[in-house]
Design brief:
By secondary structure, the protein is an alpha/beta fold. The chain is 37% helix and 19% strand. It is built from 12 helices and 17 strands. It has a 7-stranded mixed beta sheet with strand order 4-12-11-10-7-5-6, sandwiched between helices. A 4-stranded mixed beta sheet has the order 1-2-3-15. The chain has a 4-stranded antiparallel beta sheet with strand order 13-14-17-16. Strand 1 (22-26) and strand 2 (29-32) form a beta hairpin. Helix 3 packs antiparallel against helix 9 and helix 10 (300-317) runs parallel beside helix 12 (372-387). The longest helix is centred in the N-terminal third of the chain and has 20 residues, at 102-121. Bound molecules: pyridoxal-5'-phosphate.
């Protein structure tokens, strides 16, 4: 059995993988096929909130696996209904559509906004959606078009119309686009993850919210990466003191199994009607049972740990040798370095620490419950590699 050779021969070549084969993991420590251990500061790109193979999550998943792993959306199931209730109670949103990924969660948000516009205006004249430059919203054709980075659009056209890119942190840019085009929504990440862990200014976010309120435009917040405790609050919009009309999430919600959720606020809660949208696996009982466990454990105690660990990382790396700047929120952190981020990630891997990159930065997305000693060791090694 040769994992790497098989993969290179038979798996579509969309990923530039690191040259290691991971075989097992517990919490924030992963093991490769040679038995070498790694401290994981990426948690499967913000997915394994409680680390790998977390016992409580595993028990919830295994219980549902034995009861009923899959049915279809023709029937009611307990985990799906419980998860929707939990999400609504914790956010104030009114209804949830379940899918299997972040891109699909955003796809549903886009469809909902367009149908809302159609219901309101009786035609498609106001179906435009404003997104931000440097954003990332997914890999389907519509969410690629929503993604405000030209690099992702190369040679995959034709794309659907109706997406307009405003400058992040420039309210005038949002307003002038909205005035020139019939727009129904603004969709944004409050910390742009793939774009390089760039925080939006609070004034800008508030300005967009107020403008949208005045003009009956919807605010869609993409919490696929920032959600589920990652930034030190349950959802990142909770730092800004407003409630969006639509919140999308995925990654961490499933704790390691695929799930997407599109949360619908008061204005749009009844826009989707029977037949208007669907997903075969959406609301899968096993994924939802795991997600119920994850969501019920993101409490004030965990969030205050997230904020403490965040402070530790910011304090350790800000001003350190070879570090130009540190950005982000909670345990979603970007480190701008003098050396190439890719080289740093490769050198960290050699030394037993897994980190990610985003654009030209080193990106850290550790499990929210990473033990303090493992985090400390991981950051020390990263710091030494950056300074080398
Ligand atoms: C990862 C990500 C997506 C896409 O999620 P998938 O599950 O890969 O489809 C969308 N938006 C943001 C902000 C993301 O970080």
């Amino acid at each position: 059995m040769n994992i790497t050779e098989n993969d290179k021969q038979y798996v579509a070549g969309t990923y530039a993988r690191f040259p290691i084969e991971l075989v097992s993991g517990k919490g924030s420590v992963l093991k490769d096929s040679s038995g070498k251990e790694y401290i994981d500061l990426g948690s499967g790109i913000a997915v394994n909130i409680f680390g790998a193979a977390d016992d409580e999550w595993k028990a919830a998943v295994e219980k549902q696996l034995s009861l009923l792993p899959h049915t279809s959306n023709l029937y009611y199931t307990e985990p799906c209904s419980t998860l929707a209730k939990l999400l609504c109670e914790k956010t104030g949103m009114k209804k949830v559509f379940f899918s299997n990924s972040g891109a699909e969660a955003n796809e549903c948000a886009i469809k909902t906004a367009r149908r809302y516009a159609y219901n309101k205006f009786g035609d498609e004249s106001h179906s435009g959606i404003i997104t931000l430059k440097n954003s990332f919203h997914g890999r389907t054709i519509a969410t690629l078009k929503a993604t405000g980075q030209d690099g992702y659009h190369t040679h995959f056209g034709p794309f659907p119309d109706g997406f307009y890119y405003a400058e992040a942190n420039n309210l005038e840019s949002v307003k002038s686009i909205a005035e020139e085009n019939g727009c129904i929504a603004v969709m944004m990440e409050l910390v742009q993850g793939e774009g390089g862990v760039c925080n939006l200014d609070a004034d800008f976010v508030k300005g967009v919210y107020d403008y949208a309120q005045q003009n009956d435009m919807l605010i869609i917040i993409d919490e696929v990466q920032t959600g589920n405790g990652r930034t030190g609050k349950l959802y990142s919009y909770m730092h800004y003191g407003f409630t969006p009309d639509i919140v999308t999430t995925a990654k961490g919600l499933g704790g390691g199994l695929p799930i997407g959720a599109t949360m619908l606020g008061e204005k749009v809660k009844d826009v989707l009607i029977p037949g208007s949208h669907g997903s075969t696996f959406g609301g899968n009982p096993v994924c939802c049972a795991g997600a119920c466990n994850i969501l019920s454990r993101i409490d004030d105690k965990l969030l205050s740990e997230v904020n403490e660990k965040s402070k530790f990382i910011f304090d350790s790396l800000s001003g350190a040798e070879g570090v130009k700047s540190v950005s982000g929120m909670g345990l979603m952190i970007g480190v701008e370095t003098e050396k190439s981020a890719k080289d740093i990630a490769a050198a960290c891997m050699e030394k037993g620490v897994l980190v990610l990159t985003a654009k030209s930065k080193v990106r850290l997305l550790p499990a929210l419950n990473i033990p303090a000693d493992e985090l400390k060791k991981g950051i020390e090694i990263l710091k030494a590699v950056i300074a080398e």
